[in-house]
Specification:
It is a single chain. It contains 5 helices and 6 strands, in the order βααβββββααα. It has about 160 residues and is of the alpha/beta class. The radius of gyration is 14 Å and the shape is globular.
């Protein structure tokens, strides 16, 4: 599976200036629902925040993968934001999060949900990818990095 099937260039944002987890999730909610008429940004936000209440989706090393299920969605959708400055996300390492990849799945897609979470987790364990995502400020470049990443790049994980 490739992220290219789930994310589009219009759901990638760079240099997002926000001061809290809540605001970051709101921004992701708008990106996800943008150009997707069947999705309401408030419903997307409620899905993401409900999952955060169960436990942080912060992975550590400045990465978070907020995710949720949405009844009104009919396909899995992803969005990515790079923050100007990291925000507290209750990550296990206590580090602020500055790279967030949100995932929304329809209720019946449990296997796909787990596959995509595993892919994202593998991607973001790669220090070279994290560095490149932080060093560019161009949504097209970030989109290309995400969409074209494959597990063969994952050799140098930490």
């Amino acid at each position: 599976m490739k992220l290219a099937n789930l994310i589009t260039i219009d759901r990638v944002a760079c240099d997002v200036d926000t001061a809290s987890k809540k605001r970051a999730l709101e921004h992701l909610s708008h990106l996800i629902s943008n150009n997707t008429p069947e999705l309401n940004p408030n419903d997307v936000f409620e899905s993401l925040i409900a999952r955060e209440r169960l436990g942080s989706t912060g992975l550590g090393k400045g990465i978070a993968i907020p995710h949720g299920r949405l009844k009104s969605g009919n396909k899995t959708i992803a969005a990515f934001i790079q923050l100007v400055k990291g925000v507290d996300f209750d990550a296990p390492d206590g580090e602020p999060v500055d790279l967030l990849c949100a995932l929304l799945v329809p209720p019946e897609c449990s296997d796909e949900h787990l596959e995509v979470l595993a892919l994202l987790s593998e991607m973001f364990r790669n220090p070279e990818l994290r560095d490149r995502l932080r060093s560019t400020h161009n949504p097209e470049v970030i989109y290309d990095l995400l969409a074209n990443w494959s597990s063969s790049h994952g050799e140098n994980n930490d």
